Amino acid sequence: MLEFLLSSDAIMALITLTFLEIILGIDNIVFISIAANKLPENQRNKVTNIGLLLAMAQRVILLFFVSFLIGLNKPFYEIDTSWLTTSVSWQGIILLGGGLFLIFKSTSEIKHKVESPKEEDLKNKKITSLSQAIIQILLIDFIFSIDSILTAVGMTNNLHQNHNYNLVLMVIAVVISIIVMIAFANPIRKFIDKHPSMQLLGLAFLILIGFMLITEAAHLSHTKFLGNTVGAIPKGYLYFAIAFSLFVEFLSLRIDKKKKPKIES
């Protein structure tokens, strides 16, 4: 096995998988940051680290049930009407439910911030408990895990004849990616908490991701609506939009920072 792990193909696959897991984990970090920032200050670092460690454990466990995950994409019910055609599968239901949950959670948070903009009002609101925050993080990570794990399986499927070797490679990639996310999650969370505009931008990202999950569920279910096939939103487009929005926001924050000393003087 060591010879396989040190081979050029395995190292390249490990780097690619780790990078993929980190990119897909950005969604998780944004959600974890928003969920953790609703807790008291002394619990925020704790829930962020616990959430990511449990997420790592959950993904590693799911990797040992790859055949179960692959079976989730098999349709068990067909809907064929004059205006809607779709093949219902558990994978589609999970992605649809996750997308709806993200949209509901994000829009309710935005509504909450718009209606109670003052810090004093926000403190008087009901604060999510540590256990509730962790449960929400695990639920969202489960939804994201299905997509990332099935992608990882597809990438390593023909890498080695022994599936156990491929499994070990995927586990290593997951562990490395979570360690990287733990290193950056709390600084990102503090930055989001410090800048209210970044909080709203993060919530807007989650709404976009929610719509992406819904369209992906429809695409995987071969859904046709009024004779039109529903296609999945390319993830590259979505991540480019997020990166561009962040770049513009960073420029705006930099400009505001330069203006403040002039205003104060």
From TrEMBL:
Organism encoding this protein: Geojedonia litorea
InterPro entries: Integral_membrane_TerC, MFS_trans_sf
Main location: membrane
Top-rank lineage group of the source organism: Bacteria
SUPFAM superfamilies to which the protein is assigned, alphabetical: MFS general substrate transporter
Keyword Acetylation: no
Record lineage: Bacteria, Pseudomonadati, Bacteroidota, Flavobacteriia, Flavobacteriales
Membrane-spanning ranges: 12-35, 47-70, 82-104, 133-155, 167-188, 200-217, 237-255
Keywords on record: Membrane, Transmembrane, Transmembrane helix
Record's keyword annotation contains Membrane: yes
Cell compartments where the protein resides: Membrane
Topology versus the membrane: Multi-pass membrane protein
Pfam family, one: TerC
Family stated for the protein in its record: Belongs to the TerC family.
Name of this protein: TerC family protein
